[in-house]
Amino acid sequence: MTTTTSVMRSEIAEQPEALRATLDTLLPLMPEIAALGRETRQVLFIARGSSDNAAVYGSYLLQAHSGRLATLASPSIATTYGAKVDLSGVLAVAISQSGRTEEIVDTMAWAADCGARTVGITNGEDSPLTRAADVALVTSAGTELAVPATKTYTTQLAALAVLALGLGADLETADLQAVPEAVEQVLAQPGDAADAIADALVGVQGAVVSGRGMAFSTALEAALKLKEACYLHAMGLSYADLLHGPIAVVDRATPAILTAANSGPTLDQTVALAERVTAAGAPAFGIGGGSALAGACDLAVPMPDLPEWLAPIGLIVPAQLITERLARRLGYNPDAPRGLGKVTQTS
Asked: For the purposes of burial, counting CB atoms within 10 Å of the CB of 205, is it exposed (0-12), middle (13-18) or buried (19 or more)?
């Protein structure tokens, strides 16, 4: 195992400052978001990859706290089928780290042509997505060199939290402004638990990563990171979907990684899932969930208290750290996974 610090690890450490800069930039745009909100009733998210996982967070957040129906688009309806859909009253939110993925830009343009108003969320200032959107929420993550998205992902989540506030969610802006400090606390705590989980994952061929509600997005993104950088067959599933059959694959060689906010309506179910996994003789590793989840798991990474609606911004950080450490333990370069580039073009 190499001890050289990876670019991915350095960029993980940059997230508190990236979040602060992003919030400073985007919170003043809430009146523009509110104006779009007055013209629309529901939200359509357009994204792929990590950005799609961010969109899952946005969908739960808006439906739970702003009273708006939010759904994920199928870009091929626009780019492959060329279908015409009535999107009057829809706010189409396109999310792309670079702002240059043609499929996402083209699908947002299609949505506008179908009657939608548009928001672009991207780290790519002066990108095609930025120029085409009615309102551009440009994150301030700085240049991200490692292929696995870290700081661009968490700043996307912050942008979605600003979007929710702008669309009238009954939530506290002050809580959002406290997130960078909470992420600093995650990064400053001893890494023993993350190291131990990474060690335990050496040699396994697969893992199930599960969360529910707001934390479902974290499960999806954590699984994607393990697949990208560690070549692990990781499945990201909600608690409910896991119980509909896939839990059968969890065993001593296929551990479960479970994630939850320290409080909220999905915590008890996540703890029950951990107890079921360990009772079956399989390892269970927790991220967040307070003392309740830690007590039900073999190993757990603690999290500072964040409101459930903001917890995913903090919860993904230990998963990023575990991924980076596991990749290096396996002898892989987490900065440049095989077969992947920074911008993926699809159609």
From this structure: exposed
Between strands 233-238 and 284-288, the pairing is unpaired
Whether 101 and 203 map to the same domain: the answer is no
pLDDT in tens, 250-299: 888 889 999 999 999 999 999 999 999 999 899 999 999 999 999 999 99
pLDDT at 158: 98
- State which residues of the chain have pLDDT below 50: 1-2, 347
Q: Counting every residue, how long is the chain?
A: 347
Q: Which residues contact 192 (CB under 8 A, 6 or more apart)?
A: none
154 and 207 in a single domain? The answer is no
CATH number of the domain at 37, please: 3.40.50.10490
Amino acid in the structure at residue 290: G
Q: Which of 213, 151, 204, 168 is nearest to 20 (CA)?
A: 151
Burial 206-242 (b: 16+ CB within 10 A, else e): bbbbbbbbbbbbbbbbbbbbbbbbbebebbbbbbeeb
Closest CA to 134 of 98, 90, 73: 90
Listed residue (268, 182, 187, 259) closest to 220, CA to CA: 259
The pLDDT of residue 240 is 76
If DSSP codes are grouped into helix, strand and coil, which group holds residue 31?
helix
Q: Where are the beta strands (DSSP E) in the chain?
A: 42-46, 70-72, 90-96, 117-122, 135-138, 206-211, 233-238, 256-260, 284-288, 299-301
Domain coverage including residue 74: 7-177
Q: How far apart are CA 103 and CA 347, in angstroms?
A: 5
Q: Does some domain include residue 120? A: yes
Tens of pLDDT, residue by residue over 116-137, are 999 999 999 999 999 999 999 9
190 and 133, same domain (yes or no): no
Burial of residue 190 (number of CB atoms within 10 Å: 0-12, 13-18, 19+): exposed
- Does residue 336 belong to any structural domain of this protein? no
Let me know whether 213 and 239 are in one domain.
yes
